[in-house]
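Chapter review: from sequence to fold.
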Amino acid sequence: MDNVSVSKGVFAHKGRYKIGDRNRKHKQPDYLNEPWYFAYKECWASIEEATEHIRSTMFQQILKDIASFVSKVKKKPLESLENEIQTAIVLTGINVPDHAVMFTRIISTLEPITKHTAVIWDTSSNNMKHLLEEIIYQLINSDKASDEDKVKKSQCTMRALNYWYQEHCESNVPLVIIITDFESSSPLVLHDFISVLSSYSSTMKFILIFGIATTLHAIHRSLSYDVTSKLNVQVFHSPTQINILSDVLENIVFCTNIPFKLTGRAFQLLTDIFLFYDFSVENFLQSYKVCMIQHFYANDVNSLCCQPSEIKNRISLLTDDHIADLRMLPSIDNYIKKLQKEKNEEQIDNNKFKEILAQLLMKFHRYMDCFLTVLKCLHNLMAPLPNSPMGKQLREFYTTAVYAKDLKESPQYKECLQLLGFLSKSELVSKLNSFVAIMECSKDSVLEKVKTDLLAHIATIEAASLEIDTGTKDILSTGEKLSRHQLKEKLLKMSQTHSRSPYKQAQLDVIEFLDQQIFITFLINPYHVPANEIFCFHDGALAKQHIRGSLRAAVHTGLNNPQVYLNCKCCKLETEDAIPSSLPDLSIIYKLHLESRKLINMYDWLQAFLIIVDPKSESKEQRDVDPKLQARFTQAVAELEFLGFIKSSRKKTDHVKRLM
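The token string follows.
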């Protein structure tokens, strides 16, 4: 057996697997086939279509103006620019996170005019070397047809750019440099940068585009006169975010084509975040999407939130469990009980319930159509009034209508009705005619009758005279002797029967008609309409929890009960006060510190920690502590101090102070 040998060899061969080229099979989520997801997807698709139309139109004018500006500069010979750098100042508005959308569209608009565009998005403009390298690298490598870089960043200099421009570009082709946030850039760096560009302006044609969030004076505050004198500035104004939000609401919330409606505290929360925090339309849309997800998620009942043409099909797909859930909705439950009481019926079977449900859903669609139409009429009528008691924007009227319990009890609404009585005849007729024009957009038969009655009132007002009828006899005579009580009654009767002009009487009649027959009748809070839970989301607390969550509460929940976030069995608590040894050290330290008073003795704290993590030595006090356990305790205490729950005490060196 000595001559027997076993040879082992390793033979490598090229396999199919490539790094980064693994075909991963992702399992599709189960909810993709659920009815609620189809309803959510359909509704959000309508919203995305509307928002995309808004995005394409809201920057249309400024994009057209900037493209015209660059085209004019391109047509001019380089010698006619007199070594001045053509500069476009885009006033974007204060604290607007939507700048990226606008500047992305500016870049795509300028592509047919010039392919050589460089954009500075971040704070790299705070260093002159990095700024030049980034701009030159983008300009030289702007040709997307070639995959290979023409020059490395370390080789990006103005001399290299000048050489490349003379070799590859026509003399009139401009190099566009966009700095999206002028205020965050270093003034010294911009000063030197513009000076460098000016020294090459005789051989290369540059166009600067600055995004300024504040005012035009920001340029004069940041740059000296010798630098600004080298710029030929033209100012462009972007649309204000308030107007953009109004367009978004007009096409999403105040539109009857989208069945989902945001009402109550949830709508007020989103508008407050927009007005007082970020002025971001994009953030508003994302928050709106969060509210939609909360409304639809895992709730097949809300799959009935659809267009009127699809109601019967959606109801036919309901199961007995879905019908039971629908019966438990508060508004539908109250309606069914009221219906049973009127018709003396003990029980309504599922088939009849489906018929009633279809009627309620159709009624809600008609109600919402009338509600939004009359709300626009109310805004058109009362927004121009002095001091605008109910506000100037349609969203303010909508907030009042969907948040107030009863519109007629609102003091702002009562004040507006009083102010209508001070309008002149021409103003009142003009407002009522515009009122009728808005109502003509609706095809509802109920509003058609209201419009007919309103036209009759308008005709009466137009024919009414402004002269006061003086044919009434005086109630008091000079020769009549009256006691004080009788005189008081006579004067009260005179005040109640004082004569009015025909116009004044017609004016009071039309105001009463608007109040009682239109506004009070149609502007009912959606919360009081049956089946509102299917179409409306008004839970402001739930929306705030996901949009503007409380950081301190989330930290407390994570430390007090880690199983909420870790989702592991070892961290599961039998009771809320239990402290098992399987918890993370930081959680154990945190739960122990909750049991202490204002000052915590570090030695006692350590002993309590050891009792939990090392239960074998539970009966005796540990003088010689295991270094590993002591290190774990020290690290956990340091982490708790970093989170801001404790701090060292100056009164006692062996104690720490609780901060919360």
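Two observations follow directly from the output. The beta strands are 85-91, 117-120, 175-179, 206-212, 231-237, 261-262, 536-537, 599-601, 646-648, 655-658. The radius of gyration is 37 Å.
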